[in-house]
Amino acid sequence: MKKIALVTGATSGIGEACARKFAENGYNVIITGRRVDALDQLAAELRGTGAEVLPLAFDVRDREAAAAAINGLPAEWQEIDVLVNNAGGAWGLEPEYTGNYDDWDTMIDTNIKGLLTMTRLIVPGMVERDRGHVVNIGSVAGDAAYAGGNVYCATKSAVKALSDGLRIDVAHTGVRVTNIKPGLVETNFSVTRFHGDKERAAGVYKGIKPLTGADIAESVYYAVSAPAHVQVAEILILATHQASGSVIHRE
After folding, report:
1. What is the model's pTM?
2. DSSP three-state, residue 133
3. pLDDT tens-digit series, residues 136-152
4. Do the beta carbons of residue 184 and residue 204 sit within 8 Å?
5. d(CA 88, CA 166)
6. Is 27 one of the annotated active-site residues of the chain?
7. Which 3 state secondary structure label does DSSP give 180?
8. Given 152, 205, 221, 222, which residue is catalytic?
9. Strands ordered across the beta sheet of 4-7
């Protein structure tokens, strides 16, 4: 019987790469996201690898929609082995004292509350079955704040604390918890942060070869593939010329 992985925010970037990685390695995959067309396109591609794919269109910020989707899973999809809490993002790069209220709400509701919602809906089943793996996509930004990162950094610091707390809560079970902390990854991340300004977003990666979504997916799969008695608690993964969230050497 094939294992099942659920990936949130699977329509692009790290989430899409994770969905592809699990499908290519024999998992059946539940992909979630807000864009129905993108989910359907990805589902069709993944089915070409021989995987069974279930697309679920909802926003993790909408707790009722998330609950309806998860609680309504067909019987053959209910025993989720891997949850990848990837949905998230950064909005804005202003100083904290001039920040945008809506940007703050979006980051807190997605990066923290959305992750909590999915964890609350899926982990009880893992605990009951005494097996499973939760992978939270955090960030190097959760280790230390950087200029303009204030609220985003705070949300990713929360992801670290929530990962650590969950790991404590399930220590009596066979459930494992991993916090993946990427540095610069070239995805739609910066386009989102700058509200669609692609030229400004491109400048974030100028002069450095950044990580890709596939690089992060490799780390996610490495943690999940470890022997059952091995728990990879955290992985910090940076581009070669990035030393921390704020120290980057550009050519």
Report:
1. 0.94
2. strand
3. 999 999 999 999 999 99
4. yes
5. 19
6. no
7. strand
8. 152
9. 53-57, 28-33, 4-7, 82-85, 132-137, 175-182, 234-237
